[in-house]
Write a structure and sequence with these properties.
Radius of gyration of chain A: 20 Å
CATH superfamily of chain A: Luciferase-like domain
Strand content of chain A: 15-25%
Order of helices and strands of chain A: EHEHHEHEHHEEEHEHEHEHEH
Distance between the termini of chain A: 17 Å
CATH topology of chain A: TIM Barrel
Oligomer: heterodimer
Distance between the termini of chain B: 10 Å
Number of helices of chain A: 11
Structural class of chain A: alpha/beta
Chain lengths: 334, 340
């Protein structure tokens, strides 16, 4: 099991107060994550204020670009990996994205995983990518991933799709990693099939263990269908966590992380498990249910009003929760 | 009285060198020495796996007072529990009052290479329970006829054994084995660095509860923990020393079904040093060591066995014996022994 943690690059108004995230916070988290032995740092992407955040707060959140932030933080670290969870693929042009990611992979020494999603709303997509009109975003995902792989592989790269076309693009450097891992988020059958055909991992944020097990079974069946054999697919699950010495303190931290918030307008999805709040023992007990399902990476993203609170929870999680999960089985007496 | 012991890493050192360490541990003020019992080590390169019972005989002969134990032996696959009872009977006859037997459900890497089928945890635990019962009877009775699911004896007698049965310590990482220890064993063993919630919320309550149910007092049970500590005046050296034992940081999922030391070594080496060190109390400051060990004393552990990961064990024994053990004894003495 790999354990990772989140950077607050686009989390104001969701897990952190509006106006709270700054350079020092992100640098401190990156350095501490490496010292504490976390496997990777996860960044997300919003280009403009989310409607629900706009509805809850008077001031706009600051959203730092994940690829640029990764480049900056890769220079401050030497070992830890970086994951985008997720960048909204249809918003990016594949040729430009190819070069950004390849450059990042080379400069970081092969520490990049690209997590991609459909993201946003159709309105936002039309607003940002008027050039593509009312296209089929699912097909765009397929084509863009294909195009990225071709650009990362071929000296004279050519691709002819409905939404992206190029011929003899002679673009270097290529990524250090072959292949550079691409994870995909989403739950629709089309997404799971796309992971089986083109992806290296699935990112989930919602499902409880039994439903995850079902989806993982589907991915594995699609893998056999698409590739004619079994192949390993990484299963990465992210959680929004508030960790403290007592259940009351964990609830207080949730409140303090979103001061002056108006009630959320986002529809609630019943039965989903996104947020965990409690003591290390309580959080470990919730997370333990995901171990037998086939999850290979757990990303703990912390609610916090400030950098200090985030660092304290990262340390508590590393010292109390990770060992409790890694070594909790009967018979593992070592 | 608190006991402070030394863990002799049989996976890391050959028998003669390890013997010198045990002798030095006595000279440096340690109260006990415990050895692991492997058929194969964790690492192929530079790994060792001396036979624990033979080695304990030599340690007993070269020392005067130090306690000798196993942490731990698996008495359920490559050894018949009746033979383990005999080996310990012999050792206890030669070194009365100084030996104990720690047992656990085992690891596949020590059994599978000998052609033994590796059953599920349920059967491994059922075997351990039977073995514990059978060994206890062989240490207290003559002409033992035992009809277990896994072990049977007919009029078996261990002829050489002391009058008092050999103290039995049971290793636990979950509630089932902890309950077995609470019900019937003289000692309970676990290992440090797995998150305090495991000890405070799962293991120790299970020992306590089952001891009470069996009408026993917790003070009848030596609450033992292998403390993973890396101590050196050079902090970076203390950190790097944990590299050899990186496999301890592998999760159950990461090491399941790995019987080959070559493969185990590969997986362990793939971990970053920070993750490798995650189980260890790494420090260059004796007060920091004590401060991080104290929570375990506060939970009620009475026998701490220190496992150091580095290549220079003699340096560790001297430094720890001089700088940390006296501080720990002071802290333990200040802690009122109200419970026990």
């Amino acid at each position: 099991m790999k354990f990772s943690t989140g950077l607050p690059n686009c989390r104001e108004g969701r897990l952190n107060p509006i106006g709270s995230v700054d350079r020092a916070w992100m640098c401190d988290v990156a350095k501490a994550a490496e010292e504490l032995g976390y496997y990777s740092l996860w960044l997300n992407e919003f280009l403009q204020t989310e409607p629900n955040v706009a509805a809850r707060f008077d001031d706009p959140p600051a959203y730092y670009d994940p690829l640029v932030t990764m480049a900056y933080l890769a220079a401050l670290t030497r070992r830890i990996r970086f994951v985008t969870s997720t960048i909204v693929l249809p918003h990016h042009h594949p040729i430009l994205l190819n070069r950004q990611v390849a450059t990042l992979d080379v400069l970081s020494g092969g520490r990049i995983t690209i997590g991609i999603g459909l993201g946003g709303t159709l309105e936002e997509f039309r607003q940002l990518r008027g050039d593509l009109g009312a296209g089929n975003r699912g097909q765009m995902m397929d084509e863009f991933v294909d195009a990225l792989r071709v650009l990362w592989r071929d000296a004279k790269a050519s691709y002819a799709g409905r939404y992206v076309k190029f011929e003899n693009v002679d673009c270097f450097p290529k990524p250090v990693q072959t292949p550079l891992p691409i994870f995909m988020a989403g739950e629709a059958e089309g997404v799971l099939k796309r992971i089986a055909r083109l992806g290296d991992g699935w990112i989930d944020t919602f499902f409880p263990p039994d439903q995850m097990r079902e989806k993982i079974g589907q991915i594995q069946a699609f893998v056999r269908e698409a590739r004619g054999r079994d192949a390993p697919v990484e299963i990465a699950r992210q959680f929004y966590i508030s960790l403290a010495g007592s259940a009351e303190a964990a609830q207080a931290n949730l409140k303090a992380s979103l001061p002056n918030a108006k009630p959320s307008q986002a529809p609630r999805r019943e039965g989903m498990e996104m947020t965990l709040a409690g003591t290390p023992g309580e959080v470990a007990a919730r997370l333990r249910r995901y171990l037998p399902v086939g999850v290979t990476e757990i990303c703990a993203i912390f609610y916090s009003p400030d950098a200090g609170g985030a660092l304290r929870q990262m340390e508590m999680f590393a010292r109390e929760v990770i060992p409790a999960l890694a070594h909790s089985q009967e018979g593992d007496t070592r | 009285m608190i006991k402070l012991g030394y863990k002799a890493s049989a996976e890391q050192f050959g028998p003669a060198e390890l013997l010198d360490f045990a002798v030095l541990a006595e000279q440096c003020g340690f109260d006990s020495v415990a050895i692991s019992d492997h058929y194969q080590p964790w690492r192929h390169h530079g790994g060792h796996a001396p036979f624990s019972f033979a080695w304990m005989g030599a340690v007993g002969a070269r020392t005067q007072r130090i306690e000798l134990g196993t942490s731990v032996v698996t008495p359920t696959f490559r050894y018949h529990p009746g033979v383990v009872a005999q080996a310990m009977g012999t050792l206890a006859s030669m070194f009365p009052g100084r030996v104990w037997l720690g047992i656990g459900t085992g690891e596949s890497m020590n059994e599978v290479p000998l052609g033994i089928e590796w059953p599920d945890q349920k059967e491994r635990f059922a075997r351990l329970r039977e073995a514990a019962e059978l060994m206890r009877r062989l240490w207290t009775e003559e002409r033992v006829t035992y009809e277990g699911v896994y072990y049977k004896t007919r009029n078996a007698t261990v002829y050489d054994r002391p009058d008092r049965p050999v103290p039995l310590y049971i290793a636990a990482s979950g509630p089932a084995a902890a309950k077995l220890a609470g019900r019937m064993a003289e000692g309970f063993i676990c290992t440090s660095g797995k998150g305090m919630a495991l000890y405070a919320e799962t293991l120790l309550p299970a020992v306590t509860e089952s001891a009470q149910k069996a009408g026993r007092s917790l003070s009848d049970i030596e609450l033992t923990i292998e403390m993973k500590v890396s101590y050196d005046h050079d902090r970076q050296r203390a950190l790097e020393d944990t590299r050899y034992w990186a496999q301890l940081a592998l999760s159950q999922e990461e090491k399941v079904g790995v019987e080959d030391p070559v493969e185990m070594e590969r997986r362990a080496d793939a971990l970053p040093i920070e993750r490798a060190a995650s189980r260890w109390i790494v420090s260059n400051d004796p007060d920091e060591q004590v401060e991080k060990i104290k929570p375990y004393l506060d939970l009620g552990f009475t026998h701490l066995i220190f496992h150091a990961p580095g290549p220079d064990q003699k340096r560790f024994l001297k430094l720890y014996g001089e700088e940390v053990l006296p501080r720990l004894r002071k802290v333990a003495a200040q802690k009122a022994p109200a419970v026990r």
